[in-house]
């Protein structure tokens, strides 16, 4: 605990006392992050700017600022696709809600934790504790541990409450093709995928898909790591500048080559445009922003935000919906961007009135008027901008837009660009008549979420609908966009010319870092070292336990000369995406696991290794992903794909040296998808035997409590098999009645025992969930519960001293 971290100043204590989170009053010295200097939790420029923008009334200003200066309460979502989402919700409602309330000081009106009222099905939760409190306060330890574990497993996602809102306004259906333009670290991508999968049955996939794009490779890896926690084959992760995201337009030459059966262009039903922004809506979470805050940041991002949004609209189908969002409160990044795209789209795009959706979400209408601040001056119209500042202060930043060319034509300026007639540049910003310029667009349909309305961060959201193809847009003269090179690109059949502006530093076709085969798909691959008793080794004969974690540094360090630079079409340094078509392997997998016809492998498997004879991992892709990959191949691989599909098979070899009939085991990521389609190598275990497997990881056939089950395990073919929690003595998937709620684990059938092939943390989670269920059954009078292992179960971990080689005997 941080009590001894030195005395805090009186001001700090005062800020602390103002903190609405009463629980923290018990532990005052820990209330503020130790790195935060209270003097930094303010910024006169910020005050001046936002007072002038009228984002809240003057009467509200103090309460707005007070909340903005307090740490953000932690919020999280239960992942609806998780097997245990109902258990977790009930644990929160019945266990934690009561236990935590007891910790909160008397008189605190706020609940310790509560579901966010506007989020469907009580799946999103607000806690009245900041992340710092959760980390430091001993009485919150159990809750904190719970959040950490469930987050890691993928049952919950920690996410700012307001950041959960944009996907909810996108109106995603299961058959939609969705583009998430600036997606990393992927919290909203996760939500979009959850919505897509919402009503799909076990073993099937939705018709739609998501392409999640981000410019930053490392952040893409974070996203991949996040999404790995859910079972989806409907995702492609790409790595482009969103403003240049390829439309994959199939030209005539390609058509002649016989690809006419493909879609001829990549168009989306839904686009999420959650652009990079100055982020002052996250001040409560990142108080260091107070110090760094300035108006230049927002002004500097304005053009990029317009370009990304325009590209999103050009890739949107007519009739489609796009959500534009930022975690900034600044009108230059928000209303000004929306107004400019409406201006450029000339009626083909409109703002959607979503005021009746999510009625419990407190929101404020978008602003119709605002000021632009540059070099200490507040400006209401682009006519006031000094010529020398025109490259930084653009007409599109102002409520009425405008155009410097027209100003130049219509007014006589002196040589320095100062107006000689017309508008006078005012020195005192307070002197402006703020009512002077009002946007013509219905910007009140946008929404701003403010911190003091529902004790959250801040966010801006605009919902747009495309009603007709975008119009031809006049290419602006280069001199208007300083440091940017402008070019007009035909975006395809649907839209006319769309303005494209490339930032001068743009190098999106450059070689990026070399990454390993599969590494990009698995940035933080759980090493099978986790399988303490792993009886399998990879096809190179190298124990996976011996491998260092997969990351670019390690790969470069370990095998500097071994790795060839991978090439994916024109993208160098990126693993290729190859359709896996080796018939003999596919047939052997289908035969070994008895995979039924409703789960076609043919055409749905890809690898990331150009050496197809040496494939280690095979990924499953949905039909929609397959279509996009085929289009991408037809156009010459415009997409730079970082990750695609769901890992479903991994090459294996018995550590015992025995040959196994099938070279590939089922990967735990893909197991829930394929589970209902397996008819061989699958058995159902009683709760007690299932529990023992999770506890001891390795159980001899003769030592299962249910002797019949032990016999059936002994009769399985050597190699990978699947054990489902159930009644026992059931063999086929049909008899097992596998459904969305089935709990299953991948195992390895060795010579004399069965070994679990699930990571330790997953074992721990499954075990805890199972014990909870058993406890509930015991309360109801069931006899299945048994705390201690039966005498005949060997506790391998103790006996073998944790050495997985001991399992050779199995
Ligand atoms: C606000 S964050 C996105 C958060 C994300 N939507 C989520 O919910 O987790 C903005 C993202 O834009 C990315 N970015 C910045 N410039 C970009 C560009 N030109 N094209 C695409 N992505 C960009 C950043 O790397 C960052 O991950």
UniProtKB/TrEMBL annotation:
<protein>
    <recommendedName>
        <fullName>SAM-dependent MTase RsmB/NOP-type domain-containing protein</fullName>
    </recommendedName>
</protein>
<dbReference type="InterPro" id="IPR029063">
    <property type="entry name" value="SAM-dependent_MTases_sf"/>
</dbReference>
<dbReference type="InterPro" id="IPR018314">
    <property type="entry name" value="RsmB/NOL1/NOP2-like_CS"/>
</dbReference>
<feature type="region of interest" description="Disordered">
    <location>
        <begin position="1"/>
        <end position="37"/>
    </location>
</feature>
<dbReference type="GO" id="GO:0000049">
    <property type="term" value="F:tRNA binding"/>
</dbReference>
<dbReference type="Pfam" id="PF25376">
    <property type="entry name" value="Pre-PUA_NSUN2"/>
</dbReference>
<dbReference type="GO" id="GO:0016428">
    <property type="term" value="F:tRNA (cytidine-5-)-methyltransferase activity"/>
</dbReference>
<keyword id="KW-0819">tRNA processing</keyword>
<feature type="binding site">
    <location>
        <position position="214"/>
    </location>
    <ligand>
        <name>S-adenosyl-L-methionine</name>
    </ligand>
</feature>
<feature type="region of interest" description="Disordered">
    <location>
        <begin position="778"/>
        <end position="810"/>
    </location>
</feature>
<keyword id="KW-0694">RNA-binding</keyword>
<feature type="binding site">
    <location>
        <position position="274"/>
    </location>
    <ligand>
        <name>S-adenosyl-L-methionine</name>
    </ligand>
</feature>
<feature type="domain" description="SAM-dependent MTase RsmB/NOP-type">
    <location>
        <begin position="64"/>
        <end position="467"/>
    </location>
</feature>
<keyword id="KW-0808">Transferase</keyword>
<feature type="compositionally biased region" description="Basic residues">
    <location>
        <begin position="1"/>
        <end position="17"/>
    </location>
</feature>
<dbReference type="InterPro" id="IPR057286">
    <property type="entry name" value="PUA_NSUN2"/>
</dbReference>
<dbReference type="InterPro" id="IPR023267">
    <property type="entry name" value="RCMT"/>
</dbReference>
<feature type="binding site">
    <location>
        <begin position="182"/>
        <end position="188"/>
    </location>
    <ligand>
        <name>S-adenosyl-L-methionine</name>
    </ligand>
</feature>
<feature type="compositionally biased region" description="Basic and acidic residues">
    <location>
        <begin position="778"/>
        <end position="789"/>
    </location>
</feature>
<dbReference type="InterPro" id="IPR023270">
    <property type="entry name" value="RCMT_NCL1"/>
</dbReference>
<dbReference type="InterPro" id="IPR057285">
    <property type="entry name" value="Pre-PUA_NSUN2"/>
</dbReference>
<dbReference type="GO" id="GO:0030488">
    <property type="term" value="P:tRNA methylation"/>
</dbReference>
<dbReference type="InterPro" id="IPR001678">
    <property type="entry name" value="MeTrfase_RsmB-F_NOP2_dom"/>
</dbReference>
<feature type="region of interest" description="Disordered">
    <location>
        <begin position="515"/>
        <end position="534"/>
    </location>
</feature>
<dbReference type="GO" id="GO:0005634">
    <property type="term" value="C:nucleus"/>
</dbReference>
<keyword id="KW-0489">Methyltransferase</keyword>
<dbReference type="Pfam" id="PF01189">
    <property type="entry name" value="Methyltr_RsmB-F"/>
</dbReference>
<comment type="similarity">
    <text>Belongs to the class I-like SAM-binding methyltransferase superfamily. RsmB/NOP family.</text>
</comment>
<keyword id="KW-0949">S-adenosyl-L-methionine</keyword>
<feature type="active site" description="Nucleophile">
    <location>
        <position position="327"/>
    </location>
</feature>
<dbReference type="Pfam" id="PF25378">
    <property type="entry name" value="PUA_NSUN2"/>
</dbReference>
<dbReference type="InterPro" id="IPR049560">
    <property type="entry name" value="MeTrfase_RsmB-F_NOP2_cat"/>
</dbReference>
<keyword id="KW-0539">Nucleus</keyword>
<feature type="compositionally biased region" description="Polar residues">
    <location>
        <begin position="790"/>
        <end position="810"/>
    </location>
</feature>
<keyword id="KW-0820">tRNA-binding</keyword>
């Amino acid at each position: 605990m941080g009590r001894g971290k030195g005395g805090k100043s009186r001001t700090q204590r005062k800020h602390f006392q103002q903190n609405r989170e009463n629980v923290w009053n018990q532990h005052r010295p820990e209330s503020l992050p130790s790195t935060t200097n209270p003097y930094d939790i303010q910024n006169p420029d910020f005050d001046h700017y936002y007072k002038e923008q009228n984002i809240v009334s003057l009467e509200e200003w103090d309460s707005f600022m007070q909340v903005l200066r307090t740490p953000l309460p932690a919020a999280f979502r239960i992942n609806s696709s998780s097997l245990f989402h109902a258990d977790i919700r009930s644990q929160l409602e019945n266990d934690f809600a009561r236990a935590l309330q007891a910790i909160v000081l008397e008189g605190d009106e706020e609940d310790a934790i509560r579901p966010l009222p506007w989020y469907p099905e009580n799946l999103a939760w607000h806690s009245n504790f900041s992340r710092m409190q959760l980390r430091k306060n001993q009485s919150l330890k159990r809750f904190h541990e719970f959040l950490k574990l469930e987050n890691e497993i993928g049952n919950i996602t920690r996410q700012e409450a307001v950041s959960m809102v944009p996907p909810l306004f996108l109106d995603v259906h299961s058959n939609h093709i969705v583009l998430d333009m600036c997606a990393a670290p992927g919290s909203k991508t996760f939500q979009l995928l959850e919505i897509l999968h919402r009503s799909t049955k076990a073993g099937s996939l939705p018709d739609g898909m998501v392409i999640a794009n981000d410019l930053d490779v490392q952040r893409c890896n974070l996203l991949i790591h996040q999404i790995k926690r859910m079972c989806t084959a409907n995702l492609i992760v790409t790595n482009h500048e969103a403003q240049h995201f390829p439309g994959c337009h199939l030209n005539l030459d390609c058509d002649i080559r016989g690809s006419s059966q493909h879609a001829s262009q990549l168009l989306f039903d839904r686009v999420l445009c959650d652009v990079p922004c100055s982020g002052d809506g996250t001040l409560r979470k990142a108080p260091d922003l107070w110090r760094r805050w300035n108006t230049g940041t927002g002004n500097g991002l304005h053009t990029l935000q317009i370009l990304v949004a325009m590209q999103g609209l050009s890739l949107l189908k007519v009739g489609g919906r796009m959500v534009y969002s930022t975690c900034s409160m600044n009108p230059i990044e928000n209303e000004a961007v929306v107004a400019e795209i409406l201006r450029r789209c000339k009626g083909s795009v409109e703002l959607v009135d979503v005021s009746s959706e999510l009625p419990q979400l407190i929101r404020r209408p978008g602003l119709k008027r605002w000021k632009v601040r540059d070099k200490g001056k507040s400006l209401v119209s682009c006519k006031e901008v000094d010529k020398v500042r025109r490259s930084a202060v653009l007409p599109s930043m102002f409520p009425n837009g405008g155009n410097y060319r027209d100003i130049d034509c219509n007014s006589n300026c002196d040589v320095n660009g100062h107006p000689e007639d017309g508008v006078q540049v005012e020195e005192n910003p307070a002197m402006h008549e703020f009512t002077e310029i009002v946007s013509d667009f219905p910007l009140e349909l946008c929404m701003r979420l403010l911190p003091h309305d529902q004790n959250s961060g801040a966010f801006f959201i605009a919902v747009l609908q495309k009603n007709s193809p975008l119009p031809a847009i006049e290419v602006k003269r280069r001199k208007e966009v300083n440091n940017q090179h402008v070019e007009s690109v035909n975006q395809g059949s649907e839209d006319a010319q769309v303005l494209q502006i490339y930032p001068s530093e743009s190098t999106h076709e450059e070689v990026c870092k070399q990454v390993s085969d599969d590494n990009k798909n698995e940035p933080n691959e759980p090493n099978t070292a986790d399988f303490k008793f792993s009886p399998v080794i990879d096809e190179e004969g190298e124990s996976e336990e011996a491998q260092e974690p997969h990351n670019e540094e390690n790969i470069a360090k370990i095998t500097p000369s071994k790795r060839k630079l991978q090439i994916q079409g024109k993208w160098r340094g990126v693993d290729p995406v190859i359709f896996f078509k080796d018939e003999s392997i596919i047939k052997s997998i289908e035969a070994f696991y008895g995979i039924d016809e409703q789960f076609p492998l043919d055409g749905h498997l890809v690898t990331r290794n150009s050496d197809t004879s040496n494939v280690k991992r095979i990924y499953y892709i949905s039909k929609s992903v397959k279509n996009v990959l085929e289009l991408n191949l037809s156009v010459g691989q415009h997409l730079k794909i970082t990750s695609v599909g769901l890992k479903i098979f991994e090459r294996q070899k018995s550590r015992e040296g025995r040959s196994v009939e099938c070279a590939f085991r089922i990967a735990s990521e893909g197991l829930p998808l394929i589970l209902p389609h397996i008819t061989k190598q699958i058995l159902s275990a009683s709760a007690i035997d299932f529990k023992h497997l999770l506890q001891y990881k390795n159980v001899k056939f003769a030592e299962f409590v249910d002797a019949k089950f032990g016999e059936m395990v002994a009769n399985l073919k050597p190699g990978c098999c699947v054990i489902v929690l159930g009644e026992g003595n059931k063999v086929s998937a049909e008899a097992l009645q596998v459904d969305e709620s089935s709990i299953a684990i991948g195992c390895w059938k060795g010579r004399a025992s069965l070994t679990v092939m699930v990571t330790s943390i997953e074992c721990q989670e499954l075990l805890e969930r199972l014990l909870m269920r058993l406890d509930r059954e015991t309360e109801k009078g069931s006899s299945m519960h048994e705390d201690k292992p039966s005498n005949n179960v060997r506790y391998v971990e103790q006996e073998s001293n944790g050495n997985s080689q001991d399992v050779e005997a199995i």
